[in-house]
Design brief:
Shape: globular
Helix content: over 70%
Number of strands: 0
Order of helices and strands: HHHHHHHHHH
Number of helices: 10
Structural class: mainly alpha
Length: 272
């Protein structure tokens, strides 16, 4: 137990590369956030062009009482919006996937003290791994939907209790997924093969269950402390800060937590 506690405390002693890795993640998330923001603004602009800034009822009345040419123009604008939405969504998804692949490839090459090689083959392999992660994220919904139904059935009048139960599930699933996916990334940085890395990660967890669950417990402890600090920010700071600024602050702290967890998981994995 002392060795696990010592390893946990030592994980907060960051060495030189940590700041560089954190900076890479911040830049990647900043570009992704700006891309999502611009895409959202583009959609809002097209919606405004279609409706002319009118409310739903007013716009509906205008369409119903409009001429054939006006209706045709409306259908054309809707068609343009549909194309714009789906093409933009595909391009945005590709951008997010490539940025995640490039940033994590650079980060793990730095952690492994290897030469950084951003070839098409490297980026496609990392992108394939992140696509595969999406399938495991779907498992979240497969469990969450029936869980929420059961909780609402058992605790229909007690929203606080149901929120606590679902909140525990969110946190527990998130931490397990993060620790497991980081272990897969460590394996992948060595093997460069997606399925082999996933299989090796499950074998590693099976053979090091104590270390895995200790990492989950320590990450949960750190996560709870960070959430406590975020929910109890000084009133003067919260009252003078916009909701957007608070959102970015929470996102920045979440990225900092992820970087610490990655640092911790990599160091623990090296002890195998």
């Amino acid at each position: 137990m002392k060795s696990e506690l010592s390893a946990y405390l030592q994980s907060f002693y960051f060495k030189r590369p940590f700041a560089r890795l954190l900076f890479i993640d911040y830049i990647a998330v900043l570009i992704i956030s700006l891309s999502i923001f611009l895409f959202n603004k583009l959609l809002e602009w097209r919606i405004f062009a279609i409706t002319g800034g009118k409310g739903i009822e007013e716009f509906k009345a205008t369409i119903l009482s409009g001429s054939v040419d006006a209706s045709q123009a409306f259908l054309t604008n809707v068609k343009i919006f549909t194309y714009l939405f789906f093409i933009g969504l595909i391009l945005l998804s590709i951008l997010i996937l490539c940025l995640a692949a490039i940033s994590q490839s650079i980060i793990f090459s730095t952690l492994k003290r290897e030469k950084i090689e951003l070839t098409k083959k490297t980026i496609s392999r990392w992108s394939g791994l992140f696509l595969l992660f999406l399938l495991f994220v779907l498992g979240y919904s497969l469990v969450y939907v029936p869980l929420r139904f059961i909780v609402n059935l058992i605790l229909p009048a007690n929203q606080t209790s149901s929120m606590i139960v679902l909140g525990v599930y969110h946190t527990f699933y998130l931490l397990i997924f993060l620790v497991w996916s980081l272990d897969v990334l460590v394996q992948f940085s060595e093997k460069k093969k997606v399925w082999e890395s996933i299989g090796t990660s499950f074998s590693w967890i099976k053979n090091h269950q104590k270390k895995f669950w200790t990492t989950i417990f320590c990450s949960a402890l750190t996560f709870i402390v960070l959430n406590f600090l975020l929910h109890y920010l000084p009133a003067s700071f919260s009252s003078t800060t916009s909701a957007m600024a608070l959102l970015f602050l929470k996102l920045a702290i979440l990225i900092l937590f992820y970087n610490w967890l990655r640092w911790y998981v990599v160091k623990e994995n090296e002890k195998k």
